[in-house]
Amino acid sequence: MILTIDVGNSNIESGIFSEEPNDQKLIASFRIGTNRSITTDELGIMFKEMLIHNNVAPTSITGGIYSSVVPPINHSINKMIFKYFNCNPVLVTHEDFSDVMAVRYDEPNKLGTDRLVNAYAVIKLYSTPAIIIDFGTATTFCAVSGRNEYLGGLIIPGISISLEALVNRTSKLPKVELGTPKRVIETDTVRGMQAGIYYETVESVNGIVRRMKQEMSEEKPISVIATGGLSNFIAHGSEEIDIVDDFLSLKGLKILYNKEKRG
Questions:
Q1: Given a cut of 80, is residue 31 above it in pLDDT?
Q2: Is 6 in the active site?
């Protein structure tokens, strides 16, 4: 079994895959909160417990790969994979994509590897040209040309960040859960906040995607793939999103692992 780990600013998402190179079926997945000061042993115990909870024997793990946008935790992740699963960990860097896609970014080493992993997964699993929207702590938009070039993109505040800012910077607005509204003109404060966050995000997605399509000037239709924890939530109201793949990054990591092992 191959352990894939995507370290994000808010969560560490993990997936388990078969060792078979062409098998991209996710066997199990789990998520824990990102703690920049967590130790190797704390991570090891948590990962083993999560695997057992998902009916995966920790001794069945034969390989591990991870990408990270939180450098302070990399050392602990690295040691955890080696110490608790007896595997030599593979850390994904921007250099791992040079033979697959040209990265048209001013400073590729400053680009989050999570965005490159998503683009790589789309090239391998779907079709290009494509726009990838990742609903994480921040919401990122990435463009991949029909020639499999990573063109760049943009970043906006994530849904949770927007909601927290709305609550923290006002005196009378309460904390609310995200919810799918039935209309725009609401007659209740909580429902009004939910509608505001939802439609603000949906319309931002629709507008940004249309502008990106214009700039890309592709002859072929441009696919729009959404991923991240809130992708289904927004895709329900957006006419621009074609595909939702909650585990795009984990699948990309599995394909990268196979590539690395093939040399």
A1: yes
A2: no
